[in-house]
Amino acid sequence: MDRRKVLKGAGLAAAAGAVASPAIAQSQPEIRWRMASSYPKSLDTLYGAGEMVAKRVAAATDNKFQIQVFAAGEIVSGLQVLDATQNGTVECGYTLSSYYIGKDPTFMFDTSVPWGLNVRQHNGWMYFGGGLELVREFLKDYNVISFPAGQTGAQMGGWFRKEVNSVADLQGLKMRIAGMGGQIMAKLGVVPQVLAGGDIYPALERGTLDAVEFSGPYDDEKLGFVKVAKYYYYPGFWEGSAQPSVYVNMDKWNSLPAHYKAILEAACAEANALCMAKYDAQNAEAIRRLVSQGAQLRAFPKDVMEQSYKEAFKLYNEIAASNAKFKKIFDHWNAFREKELTWFRIAELPFDYFVNQQQGQR
């Protein structure tokens, strides 16, 4: 054996190792972020979706990139997550854009549009229909970039202390309802109130509220609404789908290595899919438990549905007439919606209708 060749080879390997280790270290920097959530820890699906993102990012980077999730109120209130992310108080946030329509009604398109798209249609618009690009363009003015990171599906219409038999029963009713749905219900006589998840039950219990909407059976059960309001209405027409997002401070996003960006984006997409899957599995069981606890299921009266639909699109056209940012996204969204509704009438709706009809006859 030529010892000189062996030693020479060992020397080259050592030199390569000396170069490679720092290079790897530079490409895998240790980064620590904080994520402010709009949700309390008791809402394990919505708060948990933020945790899911953080866990996936840590696992995919050998714990080099860690995101610590904070529940609503631990750093900022649930309704201040956008502001905290925008100004750099936290690096990112897990929130619902509809909480911020007071800043600009255009925010609603990231989450949902009342009487708009269902989950699959919304995902189609966001990922392949140009919606995400439009939303991100709008959000540049707020120094954040967004990533779809959850879904609730079609929600329930909420908990009411008294029955609603017509639009007349909504007059003066104080209801916790967020986003554009609140503005539409105001047209029907409701007095909308915006409260984060953890603040709703005490207000309902004290009688400060006459009704509340939050999400669906699984979350609503955890929040205990059935204890103080028995009438449980459906559907939540203001949220045929509802997509929370991870908002990232733009400066922090731009400072990430490319592969960290890819990992974070993939983790958010995974949370988007799994959050919906969990709700689909859990809501079916939760609705049965709520009924056993005294919940009385009620469908919204026809005049409430028809008038709210009419008022919704009247409102959108009014806003579009004076808000160029809103109009740009609304026109694009509405054209996509028309095509999607046509397609779903051909295959999806007939299938669902027939299956449910047959199941009811078994």
Structural notes for this entry:
- The protein is an alpha/beta fold and 362 residues long.
- 53% of the residues lie in helices and 13% in strands.
- It contains 14 helices and 11 strands.
- The strands form 2 sheets. The chain has a 6-stranded mixed sheet with strand order 7-6-8-5-9-11, covered by helices on one side. Strands 2-1-3-10-4 form a 5-stranded mixed sheet.
- Helix 7 (179-187) links the parallel strand 6 and strand 7.
- The model is unreliable at 3-21 (pLDDT under 50).
Keywords:
single chain; 362 residues; alpha/beta; six-stranded mixed beta sheet; five-stranded mixed beta sheet; 14 helices; 13% strand; globular; disordered N terminus
Helix/strand class: alpha/beta
Biggest sheet details: 6 strands, mixed
Q: What fraction of the residues are assigned to beta strands by DSSP?
A: 5-15%
Q: Outline, from the CA principal axes?
A: globular
H/E element string? Answer: HEHEHEHHHEEEHEHEHEEHHEHHH
How many runs of DSSP E, i.e. beta strands? 11
First CA to last CA: what distance?
83 Å
The percent range for helix content is 40-55%
Instruction: Output mean pLDDT.
Output: 92
Strand order of the largest sheet: 7-6-8-5-9-11
Q: How big is the Rg? A: 24 Å
